Amino acid sequence: MSSMFYAHLAVQGMRKNGKIYLPYILTSVGIVMMYYIVSYLTYSKSLYNMTGGRDMQMILSWGTGVIAVFSFIFLLYTNSFVMRRRKKEFGLYNILGMGKKNIASILIWETLITFLSSVIAGLGLGILLSKLSELCTAKMLGENISLGFTIEKQAIINSILLFGAVFLLILLNSLRQIHTSKPIELLHSDKGGEKPPKAKWLLAFIGLIILGVAYYISCTIRDPMSALLMFFVAVIMVIVATYILFTVGSVTLCKMLQKNKRYYYKTEHFVSISSMSYRMKRNGASLASICILSTMVLVMISSTLCLYIGKEDSIHNRYPREIAMETYSIDEQYTNAIKGVSEKIVENHNLSIDNLLYYNCLPVAGTLGGSIMKIENTGDYSKLTQLYVFTIDEYNRLMNKNETLENDEIIMYTNKSDYMYHEFTIDGFQSLKIKEQVDEFNKDIVNDSSALSVPVVFIFVSDVEQLNKIYDFQLKQYGDNASLFKNYYGFNLNCEDNEETAIFDEICDEISNLQLKDENFPSVKTDSVIRNRESFYSMFGGIFFLGILLSVVFIFAAVLIMYYKQITEGYEDADKFEIMQKVGMTKQEIKKSINSQVLTVFFAPLITAGIHTGFAFPILLKLLRLFGLCNTPLLIGITAGSFAVFAIFYVLVYKITSISYYKIVSKQ
């Protein structure tokens, strides 16, 4: 037989099974398009030359890897639905005398046609939409770009190589299935229901324990650093537990419903429950996949949208003043010089300093266990704590108080409310009595410190001499890695952005001149909100844009699994419903049975995804603190809104797919 004969059979087979192949090819086209767009933006010279473009390209480059891995897993998984439907046809070819090598030739042509269709159409759409995506990213960065059209050759090459490898692996897996199957098994593959498995209570209990531990980790995590370390552990545990519980739990649910005679022996329930009980392993895996994908979409959209909307809050938490200088010394000779330079330059521009904030402190890192803080690197990051030491005079000035302390006394403020001890011991140095643990401290200083990824403790000591003793002790402990004193001097200006930028640049130049004239002049860190805003916008814009793209890919996956689940089960149940119609079941009763199946099982992934997202909220809140965002009401509102919108979309998709199921089982 000629190769064109196999190509003709492949085309005819794909055409006859259009309900299965068309969604598969369309989804493949969508994933290729998404991959090209992300890859295009990663290589785009226009984006590279934008302010903050390099940061965004770095973030988007992560997306290419995620989409690449997900594409292989997802397309291989969905191809199993296609193969399950085609095996009957291949079995018929085999019985009529066609060898497995001939069937392999048909499969090769089908895979080649699918690959070429997906890549050509996907790259075509990707190239058409690439400029639009570039304009969207430029908008996020607040930049303007030319309307010239470009094609990134490297992005095209990467797309062809990636999806060529993916479809090659899919082909090899399909050939393996044909090679290891007997003709009779192929012929009856679409009717090969599974024996109803027994309820595995031990496995179900293990799944509940794993899920409970993951939820516990999320709810009890104390700080952003721990959240970052444990987030992926919790995610893997939730995925494993979800698959166990949906596979085993769905079996248990069907058995419980079958034992409930009042529920089970009704026309609208009998067929759907009995059908589901014979395919629980595959049914549970599909539902678990839908649940995990839905959870990914909800978590990704909620967190990235929250970051993007709250970027200004994040900037102002990280930078409490528009212009700030941090001098690593509290020697008045140097701090007054910084102050004098700043005031003089601002005065030269006929402006005045607003909202001035200045203070001296000593930041020291250590590990806090109970009431004892060790000033040493133990490697135990779960107990890592940032200590800020102020004198009582600084506290009184900042808080408008008039407190006094003995040498062995301190006043304490902590961003954690669970410090229950009456003393604070710096191990190897001194045990300090806590005269008072105050409920508040200067919010700008606290907000700045809350951007750190570890818990923060503020202590206020009796005088500069005590402050120097703590400095000398940590210098002895850390040596070259010891902390330096810090003088913060920050203020706002009431002027246009370009003038504020000019003032900032002049201050930086004058500080450089001071350092050149005096080799002992300490290092000075300068910050400008306007300058840093560009970096923040690029980072948050990149994260949000990537979140949208990945969410679209995951939604593609979830919708396709829903569709294939309905289609494949429709073909499996068609004969059962035909028999039931012959014995008197009406089409109206068929619709009721379908609705019963949807309500019984299909909304379980949505409900479970909502529960997963709810328990993920505490750990997401801690992770957002890594970006300086501490707006809990914003995250609550966006998460609730995202779930509501997704739930409406989910219901619409199942409504549409259940119509396809109904048409198949009712032979329309």
Q: How is this structure best described in words?
A:
By secondary structure, the chain is of the alpha+beta class. The chain has three domains: 1-192, no CATH class; 199-320 and 528-668, no CATH class; 321-527, no CATH class. Helix content is 69%, strand content 10%. The protein contains 22 helices and ten strands. Strands 2-3-6-7-5-8-4 form a seven-stranded mixed beta barrel. A hairpin with a 3-residue loop joins strand 6 (423-426) and strand 7 (430-437). The longest helix has 54 residues, at 529-582. The mean pLDDT is 80.
Descriptive tags:
alpha+beta, 3 domains, seven-stranded mixed beta barrel, 22 helices
Task: Kindly state the percentage of residues in helix.
Answer: 55-70%
Structural class determined from secondary elements: alpha+beta
Shape: elongated
- Rg over alpha carbons: 32 Å
How many domains make up the coordinates?
A: 3
Number of helices: 22
Distance between the termini: 37 Å
Poorly predicted segments: none
